[in-house]
Amino acid sequence: MTFATQLNAAILRTGSVTCVGLDPRLEQLPKPLRESVVEGKADSAAAAYTQFCCEIIDAVADLVPCVKPQAAFFEQLGPAGMVSLGEVIAHANRAGLLVITDGKRNDIGSTATAYADAYLGCSGPERSPWGSDALTVSPYLGRDSLEPFVEVCDRRAAGIFVLVKTSNPGGGYLQDLSVDGKTVYQSVAELVTELNSTRLDAEGYGPVGAVVGATYPEQLVELRKAMPHSILLVPGFGAQGGSAEDVRPAVDANGAGAVVNSSRHIIFAHKRPEFSVAADESNWQDAVREATLQMNEQLKF
Ligand SMILES: O=C(O)c1cc(=O)[nH]c(=O)n1[C@@H]1O[C@H](COP(=O)(O)O)[C@@H](O)[C@H]1O
Fold first, then answer.
1. Atom 11 in ligand 1: which residue has the minimum CA distance?
2. Are 229 and 198 in contact (CB under 8 A)?
3. What confidence tens digit (pLDDT) does each residue in 122-148 have?
4. CA-nearest residue, atom 8 of ligand 1
5. pLDDT band with cut points at 50, 70 and 90 for residue 276
6. What SS3 state is found at 94?
7. How many other CB atoms are found less than 10 A from the CB of residue 53?
8. How close is the Cα of 291 to the center of ligand 1, in Å?
9. In whole angstroms, how far apart are CA 234 and each of 61, 82, 129, 213, 297?
10. What region, left, alpha or beta, does residue 15 occupy, with left being phi > 0 and alpha being psi -120 to 50 degrees?
11. Is 48 touching ligand 1 by the criterion CB < 6 Å?
12. CA angle 104, 108, 114 (to 5 degrees)
């Protein structure tokens, strides 16, 4: 089964478009985990990240279709962090969740193949320690830098999410530039649609998804139409200000075709006053589950 088919099926099975973002930050870990970290010891921080992310996965596995580990926070810890990232990816897969690793990778074609080998494909003899169901990818090296990823997607039933319109305030500096009568993000959307065109599953979705920020609702409407064959990954909900109303247009008529990411608002829900957490933060996993249920409820369209 292709990645798109699997993700859409998981959305319909769970009745959820929520993607839980795994962006661990040392200083925001719940107290028991924060206190287990020995200052200056990357190994102990990495062990805390593994436990934190795996317990989040266990708390939400029956509620959502996927998780999105953000590679940067693991890379920050050096080799021990990279081992932790591999453990988190494997744990999520064992729990039945699809894994979108957020690495925003890319390079010239031959190097892009190496990135694809490292990050795509969850099973089989070619699996690397970081083999994921999908990876976020930058389009700014052009078409020949995306093709190696798509070829690996074909071989390993994996997916990519190409950055089309990002959620950050400065993204428009390049993405909104007008070239030959269309914006750069419109050109990227055309390329995404073209790459999918010969690779559609029975529901009309291909392996090339697109990242479109919840913080640009008008462009989200436009880009949903421009990329009918792409699953959209919509970050920026919650902590960055995106609302349920803003993200509703990303979802297709069947209630699938998109996942909406929230990282800080879910994984650090123990810091949010609306979720009751003991003073010692020992029941932080309950807050994660409550925040996920709340987001699912908000995104019932
Ligand atoms: O590719 C992404 O996931 C991404 C693209 C984008 O345009 N904006 C964006 O915030 N992200 C990621 O989505 C997550 C958002 O985290 P929160 O703002 O805490 O929900 C982070 O891991 C970002 O790196």
1. 235
2. no
3. 877 778 999 999 999 999 999 999 999
4. 167
5. confident
6. helix
7. 26
8. 17
9. 20, 25, 26, 5, 17
10. left
11. no
12. 70
Q: Which amino acid is at 42?
A: A
Write down the CATH superfamily of domain 3-298.
Aldolase class I (3.20.20.70)
User: CA-CA distance, 20 to 54, in Å (whole number)?
Assistant: 12
Which pLDDT score, from 0 to 100, does residue 76 have? Answer: 97
Q: Cα(263) to centroid of ligand 1, in Å? A: 8
CB-neighbour burial class of residue 113 (10 A; exposed 0-12, middle 13-18, buried 19+)? middle
From the CB of 221, is ligand 1 less than 6 Å away? no
Cα 264 to averaged position of ligand 1 atoms, centre (Å): 10
Q: What is the distance in A from the centroid of ligand 1 to the CA of 65?
A: 17
Strand partners, 162: 137, 210
Instruction: Locate the ligand 1 atom nearest the alpha carbon of residue 240 and give its number.
Output: 18
Catalytic residue among 41, 68, 104, 225, which? 104
> Measured from the CB, is residue 213 less than 6 Å from ligand 1?
yes
pLDDT, residue 136, reads 98
Domain ranges, ordered by start, for the chain: 3-298
Alpha carbon of 7 to ligand 1 centroid (Å): 19
User: For position 122, what pLDDT does the model report?
Assistant: 83
d(CA 261, CA 236): 7
For residues 166-194, average pLDDT? 98
209 lines ligand 1 (CB under 6 A): no
Q: Is the CB of 235 under 6 A from ligand 1?
A: yes
Residue 226 and residue 173: Cα distance in Å, rounded?
21
Q: Is 301 exposed, middle or buried (0-12, 13-18, 19+ CB in 10 A)?
A: exposed
- Residue 274 identity (one-letter amino acid): E
| Type of residue numbered 30 | P
User: Is 93 close to ligand 1, i.e. is its CB under 6 Å away?
Assistant: no
